[in-house]
Structure formats: structure tokens, C-alpha cells
Amino acid sequence: MLHCQIIKKYTNKISFVVFTIACLIFAKNIFAIDCTNPCGAEELITCAAQSRGISAEDLFNTVLFSTANLDGMCNNQFPGGTSAQKYFYNAYCPSQKGSYFSYQNFIAATKSSPLFAEFGCAPGTSKASRYQELANFLATVSQETTSVASGYTNDGLYWRYEAGWLQGNDPTNGPDGLDYITPYFYSNVNSFWVAATSTIDYSNDQAIASNQDTLETWTGNYWQGNPTGSGGNDNQYSMQDPDQMLITTYTPPVSLDSSTPVSTNLGSIIRKQFWVGMGPKQLTGDSMMGFFGWYLLNLQENQSRQSNFYSFVNQYLTDGKLAFQGALWYWMKRINVSGAKPIHAIVTNPNNPVCQAIAIATVLVNGRCNNFDPGRLTYYTYYMNKFGLKVEPYTMTDPNTGLTLDSLECSNANVPQYTALLNYCISNS
Q1: Are residues 285 and 328 in the same domain?
Q2: Same domain, 293 and 324
Q3: How far apart are CA 310 and CA 249, in angstroms?
Q4: pLDDT band at 410 (very low <50, low <70, confident <90, very high)
Q5: Bigger pLDDT: 198 or 383?
Q6: What's the CATH number where 42 sits?
Q7: Please, are residues 188 and 281 in contact by the beta-carbon 8 Å criterion?
Q8: 307 and 405 both lie in a single domain
Q9: 151: which DSSP letter?
Q10: CA angle centred on 389, ends 150 and 280, rounded to 5°
Q11: Is the link from the previous residue into 416 a cis peptide, with omega within 30 of 0?
Q12: What's the rounded Cα separation, in Å, for the pair 174 and 169?
């Protein structure tokens, strides 16, 4: 009996010590974050959650978004529809069902590479500016994927892909059937991409992955425009970000060296179904191909630079971390307008407050002001409020046009105004 009492006594002490250590570790993890100036998405969300007495994941799932709505299109039963919609649902929705847009996948993506380290933590920015960038980003992905179930509040990240555009109803054609996507998209793809002379030696690179009757390779810098013979000329290409990479497809197989300019029509090489928007930012065929090449160069773990575009997109639609990496690439690295910097660089410039809010983010993403109010502005206001920040317009007179620029104003009915805002933010970024 005495032995049992001694064992119980020391067991209690050991349990107390273990419990104390666990509490100290937990406290260290919580209080290690400096919430006077949090850095990065995880710290920003954690600090916002602490002010409410909840966890970061709970804030993401119940305030910024809604558990019932996240990945809702895939998490719910197939509602019926076209053959194309059924094919996509059966092919992609079983993977990470309901968790594709999870907090864990989002944070894992933001921490997956030093190339994303400045997201929500740009040098020289204040705490408010960092939350403002996060609000801009969340408003953008929410509008792209909205269910509109809660009036543009926490109802984003519902659609894993643009199911509405999958109107094909002939299952005999399979997923590549011409009718598997609304003809408007496919028949109007006139974009050609041309590989530029690169400073990197690709002389030993061979075509790297078979994809039915095509082969895929990758190149360095590139231009976008209309090549000679297609309504334009070779001098009209616009330079894109050299830090992006492009995968192009050739038949028959070729190898590239550092001076091989090659053009290809994306409408003839990207499978028809991949012109729908996919993932948090709803990347489509051309932007997905740009991300594919950038990913191979910068993020692919084995650095083999070998991948199949079709397999990559299939993974993108089933792996939420990869999907959020694509959204971050679009925000941090992609050049959306010729002569501009990436969205991140423009909206985090502390010297241009008129360029830090949702109006310029909308024009850079959308090209116009589609779904601005209600929509992007509504979401932006919602997120800013949840982060405890006031939403106030910043206005100034454009020195070039004399028009009033407003950080919270964007309307398709006022093309001169949003064009002036775009030009100002590009030239002063």
C-alpha cells in the first residue's frame, strides 16, 4: 500500500511537471508574436484572433470565412448539371473535400518559400498597411470564389473552379471535348507567347514531358502579343516579368538553347477545360501556364524541372496548398499590366496611399472594375473592419489628367478615372 502511495505521489508530481511544461510551451508560442507589428499572414491572423480571444484557425473559419461555405461546391453533393460539370466534380472534389481552402493550406503556402516572405510583411510598412494588404488579397480571392450566401462577407472561397462555364453535354467527347467549355472562351483565345533570348543556358534542356501528341518544355523570359501574320508585328510584344517562367508546347519535339525564339498559340495547346478559373485566384489557362513554369523553377522540391502540365493542373485542383501558392504567385510575382510591377509591390508602397486600397487592386486584377460594389469593395470593407481598421478613402488630384483619384472608387462607367489611377500607380510604384 505504501509503495502505491509513493508511486501515486511521484506520478502526480510528474504529471504536474509535464502539464506545466506544456503550458509554458503553449504560452511561448502564443506570446512570441509581437502583435505591435505582426509580420506575415500567420502572425496577422493570430494577432487579430487574440484580440477576440479565439484561435487563428477559428478566426479564419468563422469570421473571415465560414466552415459551412469553405470549398462548399465540392463539400456538398453534386447538384446535377452538365456532363462536364459532373466530370469535374467526380475527378477533383473527392480530394481534400471541404478542406481544400483550409487555414492550414493557406498558411502552409505563405510559409513555403522565402519568395513569399514579404506577403503581409513588406519592408518599411506599418501594422495597418500589412493588414491592408491582407484585406486586399482576401477580398480578391473571396470575390473570385464567392457563393454570395452572406452578402459579400464571410462567403468567399466557395468555388474550387468555375463550374458555371462547363456547359458541355456530350460525354462521348471526354474531358477534352470541344463542347466541354462555353465556346466564347476557347474560340477567342488569340494570345501567342514568344520565348525571348535568355541569359540562362538551356542548351542541354530537352523536351521534358510527354502529353499525348505534344511535348512540353520551358523557357526563360517571354513576351505576349500578336505575332506577324496574325494581325500584329514582332515589334508589338510587351515585356513580361523576367522572373516568371513559361512552359510552351511543341510538336514535333524540340530542344531549346539560349537564343531560340519560339511562338505558340495557347488556344491550340491548353486543354479546353483548363480555360475555366481554378483555385483561390481562379487561374485560367494562360496564367496557370505561367505559374506552372515559375513553380518548376522556384518551388519544385526535387529541382528536376520535369513536369507534365496536365498532371500539374490536376494536382492544382486537388491540393489546396498548391492552389494558394498559385494565388500568392499571382499576387507577388505576376505582371498583370505591361510596364507595371506585381500587385504586391504596388499596394504596399508606403509613399502612395491612393494606391494601397481595393480600387487599384481591382484594376490590376480585373483590368476594369467588374464586381466592385457590391463585391470587391464590400469584401475589403468587411475584412478591414474585422481587423479593427477604419476604411477611409484617400483622394488626390492626378498631376497628369487633373482628375480626382480615389483609393476606394472604381467604376466601369468612369473609364478615364480608373485608367488615370492605374497609370499613376504604375508610374509611381
Answers
A1: no
A2: no
A3: 12
A4: very high
A5: 383
A6: 1.10.530.10
A7: no
A8: no
A9: S
A10: 45
A11: no
A12: 10
